[in-house]
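Lecture notes, unit on protein representations.

Consider one protein chain, 284 amino acids long.
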Amino acid sequence: MLTLLFDGLAYGMLLFVLSCGLAVTLGLMNFINLAHGAFAMAGGYVTVILTNRLGGPFLLSLPAAFIVTALAGGILEKTLYCRLYDKSHLDQVLFSIGIVFVAVAGIDYVMGSQQQILNLPDFLRGRISILGMGIGIYRAFLIVTCGILAAVLQIILARTRFGSRLRASVDDRRVARGVGIRVNTIFAVTFAVGSGLAGLGGALGAEILGLDPTFPLKFMVYFLIVVSVGGTSSMTGPLVASILLGVADVLGKYYVPSLGGFIIYIVLVAVLVLRPQGLFSRAG
């Protein structure tokens, strides 16, 4: 039981890193970016190429995945996404889902459709036993890494000048510009960082979730569920939602295998019936 809880926690923390960028763009920028999973897939492929094909160290491939996807996100934000901030949500959905299909086709053409196997370094493989509980070393690494990221993100958004300027830009762009805030730059940086976090999540999750060209389509619903259940007013909601869903998914598949992947949807419905605005969103 404890081992399953630990694995569920690791899975939940991974879901958080994969989803937190979407929580930022959707909750703070009010932009529906369904192509978020494409950036996660890109980060996973960057890591696979650097480690498997070029023989680079895994730990150095993680910041590389973040940087590459953040740059890609920044470029796309400046050239394409910025044109849709004032458009309807339907336009944003149609545009971003189009980006997903372009990314899927591009990766399939360049890398092939086969599943990519990430070669982890020896020190992250295997399991150790603590108080009779079998702990996967890589899953422990995920929990520590994702926990640090969650704390840093919450501090940046809640207690820094950048976070306050971002919230001001979202609340009223005209007033924010009037007091000297460079709204376009704030949005560009936010979108780039959100894309980079997705890429980092894809790099960290390639070994657990698997990686192939259909990755954005398979996990798009998971990202949206995390944001829906947790709310988007802070990073606390998506973090708690990710852990709840991760643990529920792992325990459900183990104890009720006949339901399998439906457990996460049952949790979604139950939470939204009780709190339609999400666990940590402000009502109204």
